[in-house]
Design brief:
Length: 298
């Protein structure tokens, strides 16, 4: 049975449900400010989270890649969701320079993980070099996902990332505190990114101390994402990565449609506006951050 990648509603990424802003009208002064559009010919962007292997791209993956390159998005980290997806993801990354694989077991796909999948992941990594372990993590948004089983898989993937000396790509939906707790409890050094971050500045700083960057994507472009705007404006640039999470989580100007890596420039322009920085400089810095984390470059 095909399970689509699409989550129909990304509201919880824009504003946590307990946020008072959900019930408030958005004042004009706190919207995502316009930035001078980046010089598209010069920027080189790294989409730190793009599910380019998703079935949503089967019909036109080549065109999607061409659009990405034309927009300056020349590198992408492609995180897996299930063991069954690893062979195709491997083939895709072999087919094109600038596509980097991460292999792991996504918490939202619990029903498709077997007890032997952690062993299978280790065996796979011995023969298929990766740039990260993931996507893995904790999801407290969907109550049908057995939390104990999510924890077992996450802790197993922490061990594997540590053993292979690879960064982690973490999913944390309504689970930033739990993920921080697990990282502390693990005790051994880890590094990586918490993708689609929508937590507090304090949580982002705590994650940074634990070796983790935060990934910022489409939700930041929504006027209502006021807490996230403040977080993004104040964090040190070194801990920021940009992402699309394509085909999910489109930015405000592509709301309701399929997201794709080319749209990363809209995230870039928004984040640059919030920080009062030149988009080209922000592109340069965040690409360097992603290359340092995943490629050990620079
Ligand atoms: Zn993802």
């Amino acid at each position: 049975m095909a399970v689509g990648f699409k989550r129909l509603d990304n509201e919880h990424y824009v504003n946590e449900p307990e946020s008072i802003h959900v019930l408030q009208r958005t004042p004009m002064t706190d919207t995502c400010p316009p930035a001078a559009p980046a010089n598209r010919t010069k920027v080189s962007l790294f989409d730190s989270h793009a599910h380019l292997d998703a079935p949503e791209f089967d019909a036109d993956r080549g065109a999607v890649l061409r659009h990405a390159h034309a927009a300056g998005v020349k590198e992408m980290l492609i995180p897996a969701v299930t063991a069954a997806s690893w062979p195709n993801l491997h083939a895709l990354c072999e087919s094109e320079p600038g596509l980097y694989p991460a292999y792991g077991l996504h918490p939202c796909y619990l029903a498709r993980h077997d007890d032997g999948d952690l062993d299978a992941l280790q065996a796979w990594l011995h023969h298929h070099p990766a740039k990260a372990v993931g996507e893995c993590g904790l999801d407290l948004f969907d109550p049908s996902l057995d939390f104990e089983r999510q924890l077992r898989l996450l802790r197993g993937q922490f061990e594997i990332a540590h053993r292979f000396d690879l960064p982690l790509v973490l999913h944390a939906r309504r689970a930033f505190e739990q993920v921080i707790l697990e990282l502390r409890r693990f005790g051994k050094p880890l590094r990586g990114v918490v993708h689609s971050f929508s937590g507090s500045t304090e949580q982002a700083r705590e994650l940074w101390k634990l070796g983790f960057s935060v990934g910022i994507g489409g939700p930041v472009t929504y006027d209502r994402a006021q807490r996230l705007h403040k977080v993004v404006a104040t964090l040190p640039i070194d801990c920021l990565l940009l992402e699309t999470d394509a085909p999910d989580q489109p930015d405000a100007s592509h709301r309701g449609g399929r997201n794709q890596p080319a749209f990363l420039v809209d995230v870039l322009d928004c984040v640059a506006g919030l920080r009062g920085e030149d988009p080209a400089e922000l592109a340069h810095a965040t690409t360097a951050n992603a290359r340092r984390l995943f490629l050990r470059a620079g």
